[in-house]
Amino acid sequence: MNEYQDITIGFLGYGNMAQAIAQGLLYKEVLKPEQIYACAKNWDKLCRNTQDQGMHACRDARETVSRSQIVVIAVKPYMVKEVMEPVRDLLQDKIILSVADGYPFDALEELLPGTHHISSIPNTPVAVGEGIFICEEQHSLTEDEFSLLTGLLSRISLVQVLDSAHVSAAGTISGCGPAFASMFLEALGDAGVTHGLSRQMAYALASQMIAGTGKLHLMSGKHPGAMKDSVCSPGGTTIVGVAALERGGLRAAVLDAVDAVECKKNKK
Ligand SMILES: NC(=O)C1=CN([C@@H]2O[C@H](COP(=O)(O)OP(=O)(O)OC[C@H]3O[C@@H](n4cnc5c(N)ncnc54)[C@H](OP(=O)(O)O)[C@@H]3O)[C@@H](O)[C@H]2O)C=CC1
Ligand SMILES: O=C(O)[C@@H]1CCC=N1
Question: What domains appear along the chain, each with residue ranges and CATH number?
Answer without folding.
Answer: 9-162 (3.40.50.720), 171-267 (1.10.3730.10)
